[in-house]
Amino acid sequence: LLPRARASQESIFARMSRLAARYGAVNLGQGFPSDAPPAFLLEAARGAVGRLDQYAPPSGLPALRDAIGADLGVDGADVVVTSGATEALNVLALSLYGPREDGTGDEVLMLEPVFDVYVPQARLAGATPVTVALRLDPGPGGGWRLDLGALRGAVTPRTRALLLNTPHNPTGAVFTRAELEEVVALAREHDLWIVSDEVYDELYFGAPPVALRTLAPERTFTVGSAGKRLEATGWRVGWIACPPGSGGRLAGQIAGIRQQGSFCAPTPLQAAVAAALPVARAGGFYAGLRQEYAGRMALLAGGLEALGVAVYRPGGTYFLTAHLGAAAPDAGRLVESGGVAAIPLEAFAQAHAAPPGLVRLAFCKSRADIALALERLSAVL
Ligand code: GLN
Fold it and tell me: Mind listing the GO molecular function terms for this protein (predicted)?
């Protein structure tokens, strides 16, 4: 084993997509849409390739930093463009926390079920991930809730940061303003950074998610994703919005670390995203997406419920969690012989075991694929 390989193994998403392709399964695992990105994005890219083909500054094309700033209500000077939100999260891990002089690591609080990159990224940065379990209230109207008492109880003198995602992947939970205000109070009390992964900020089905930077601008780094917003996850264009007021100095330092990764995100795609962000906002693209995905969520959730499966309907993201039942084939057998790829919640477990049979299913797939998945599930459940 390579010296640092223990900290990070093959991603569950990559693995399930590989198995889905091998066995011809419907892929409700990895969260990428089956629809093409919007024409206005693709046209902007066609106009940029062949014209903007060389490096961009590590902090990003100025036009894109300004477009992101305008969209989020922050100054473009406080924005750093990254190669996807995954790199944004990694750069923040490397920038904000690491090993401590006493041989331990800075502790980073995160919510469990935990999105798969948070733990390995913290470890690779030399920090110590500490997960706090969400509560799962069963039954109708139930769902995943923030356990503020547990969060508070997990803070130690070594805690440096709080890393959370709202809307939350993998559960689809959207935390309320009241919950986030308590999170902010905790962060202020212990002087913690907040890293807020908000890649699904435009994808919600009830109350819109509250951006943590609006509650705690002085300590919040917001992570966002053009891939999620504009249905182009392979483009690898994401961003970090830093706390304001440093005159761009925080962004400059983060860009200094970010350049050691991919140096810059693909220049023509940055230009295309810069052109597309205001068009998406003004043209109601996100509202259309929400409406479409609400329909597909209802199709999948309703179909599962008709099969007797307990579903936790999400407030946001394009994932739902469902309890296929302890007797259901495990995710490995389901993809191999059941013809459906799902992500088992165990893949997001760290310190707290997930109940067997609990899976995350993506509904950013075509209605035909969702119907086919339901048909195949009905044969094995
Ligand atoms: N965010 C996506 C998901 O949760 C996948 C991320 C990835 O595969 N890099 O499925």
Answer: transaminase activity
Pair (77, 48) in one structural domain: yes
Q: Is the CB of 363 under 6 A from ligand 1?
A: no
Whether residue 201 sits in one domain with residue 115: yes
User: How many domains would you assign to the chain?
Assistant: 2
Same domain for 116 and 15: no
Residue 111 CB-half CA count within 13 A: 27
Split at pLDDT 50, 70, 90, the class of 142 is confident
Helices 39-48 and 267-282 pack at an angle, to 10 degrees, of 150
CA distances from 226 to 157, 243, 271, 350 (A): 36, 20, 12, 29
Local structure of 91: helix, strand or coil: helix
CATH number for the domain including 46?
Answer: 3.40.640.10
The average pLDDT across 21-41 equals 97
Judge if the beta carbon of residue 244 lies within 6 A of ligand 1: no
The residue ranges of DSSP E strands in the chain, in sequence order, are: 26-27, 79-82, 107-112, 128-133, 135-137, 143-145, 159-165, 193-197, 220-225, 238-241, 310-312, 319-323, 340-341, 343-344, 358-362
Q: How far apart are the first and last CA of the chain?
A: 39
Kindly list the distances between the CA atom of residue 140 and the CA atoms of 312, 313, 353, in Å, as whole numbers in the listed order: 8, 10, 23
> Residue 79: pLDDT above 80?
yes
170 Cα nearest atom in ligand 1: 4
Residue 375 sits in the same domain as residue 260 = no
CA separation for the pair 179, 186 (Å, rounded) = 11
What CATH number is given to the structural domain containing 357? 3.90.1150.10
Q: Give the domain-ending residue among 282, 307, 328.
A: 282
- Only one residue has tokens 């205001």, namely 278
Protein residue whose Cα sits closest to atom 3 of ligand 1? 31
Q: How far is the CA of 239 from the centre of ligand 1 (A)?
A: 16
Predicted TM-score (pTM) of this structure? 0.97
Asked if residues 335 and 380 have their Cβ atoms less than 8 Å apart, the reply is no
